[in-house]
């Protein structure tokens, strides 16, 4: 039996809320399991001791795990309960950590791409500096910068004050639709464009280097050795392409949506009769951003067979 979006708004809203909560919970469970396995294997087998890439993989898994644990419960609660009753302090804290973790994730990816670039293209001089202790320092630096110099997120929060049982409470704790466009543009630039630009520049340089030098090497090799080198180069190129597309595609919708919100384009073009379409778009956009945290363990660890080996 079809829903009436005009007369059955309450039923429709309830269905959407339940569906949203179910999808988010499933995403959270998958992401938490995947990232926990990655972290557990890394710590128990001490994968971080002799491998720089594994240090970044573990750090990325930690940021993804915490991001899911912080963001998904908040989003799930807001999808089910329209009133925020936990006070202003608890309104600020989850959003703060969500932005910190997002920034840490973005720049861990950027650090990994820079490390891959230096390892492949400038392997000669970079070898002496490519040590786990330096990777650990970089990870600590990423966390510190993300925590201290994070974009002033308070301007992006919307807190509507009201009363419940004659008590003054915050009825709404969401991203501010009326935040200045410059604030949203800065967020888009620092949390998406800049790290993505770093990733694209590094990986495009790596791809061209492998393509050029791979052919040069193959001309001096024959038989099984040349086939191994060729296949390894192809796998690296496919992996690099997958990393770029995963980050870009999963995070683009939510960033574009927030930019449209801040520019008032959505509020000026979508009437109340079609507001349910915007709700569905928001669900998909948020779901994709969370899905990226589920996808990263597969891209950075499960597809890296040596990570789960006994060595």
TrEMBL record:
Key words of the record: Cell membrane, Disulfide bond, G-protein coupled receptor, Glycoprotein, Membrane, Receptor, Transducer, Transmembrane, Transmembrane helix
Domain G-protein coupled receptors family 1 profile positions: 34-300
A cellular component term, taken from the record's GO annotations: plasma membrane
Entry's localization field: Cell membrane
InterPro entries reported in the protein's UniProt record: GPCR_Rhodpsn, GPCR_Rhodpsn_7TM
Entry GO MF terms: G protein-coupled receptor activity
Membrane-spanning parts: 15-44, 56-75, 95-114, 134-153, 188-206, 240-260, 280-303
Annotated membrane topology: Multi-pass membrane protein
Keyword Transport applies: no
Pfam families cross-referenced by the UniProt entry: 7tm_1 (PF00001)
Keyword Cell inner membrane: no
Cited PANTHER family: GALANIN-LIKE G-PROTEIN COUPLED RECEPTOR NPR-9 (PTHR45695:SF23), LEUCOKININ RECEPTOR-RELATED (PTHR45695)
Family: Belongs to the G-protein coupled receptor 1 family.
Protein name: G-protein coupled receptors family 1 profile domain-containing protein
């Amino acid at each position: 039996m079809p829903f009436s979006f005009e007369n059955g708004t309450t039923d429709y809203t309830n269905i959407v809320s339940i569906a949203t909560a179910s999808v988010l919970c499933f995403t959270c469970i998958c992401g938490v399991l995947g990232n926990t396995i990655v972290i557990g294997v890394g710590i128990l087998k001490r994968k971080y001791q002799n491998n720089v890439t594994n240090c970044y993989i573990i750090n990325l898994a930690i940021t993804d795990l915490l991001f899911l644990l912080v963001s998904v419960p908040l989003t799930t609660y807001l999808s089910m309960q329209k009133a925020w009753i936990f006070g202003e302090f608890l309104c600020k804290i989850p959003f703060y950590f969500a932005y910190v973790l997002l920034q840490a994730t973005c720049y861990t990816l950027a650090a990994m791409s820079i490390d891959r670039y230096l390892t492949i293209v400038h392997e000669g001089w970079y070898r002496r500096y490519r040590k786990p202790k330096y990777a650990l320092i970089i990870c600590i630096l990423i966390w510190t910068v993300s925590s201290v110099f994070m974009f002033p997120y308070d301007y992006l929060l919307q807190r509507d004050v009201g009363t419940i049982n004659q008590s003054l409470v915050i009825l709404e704790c969401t991203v501010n639709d009326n935040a200045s466009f410059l604030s949203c543009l800065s967020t888009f630039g620092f949390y998406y464009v800049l790290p993505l630009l770093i990733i694209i520049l590094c990986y495009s340089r790596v791809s061209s280097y492998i393509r050029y030098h791979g052919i040069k090497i193959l001309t001096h090799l024959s038989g099984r050795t040349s086939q191994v080198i060729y296949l390894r180069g192809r796998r690296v190129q496919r992996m690099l392409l997958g990393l770029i597309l995963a980050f870009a595609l999963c995070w683009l919708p939510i960033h574009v949506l927030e930019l449209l919100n801040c520019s008032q384009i959505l509020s000026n073009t979508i009437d109340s009769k079609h507001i349910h379409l915007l709700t569905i778009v928001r669900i998909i956009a948020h779901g994709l951003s969370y899905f990226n945290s589920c996808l990263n363990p597969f891209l950075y660890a499960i597809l890296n067979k040596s990570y789960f080996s006994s060595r």
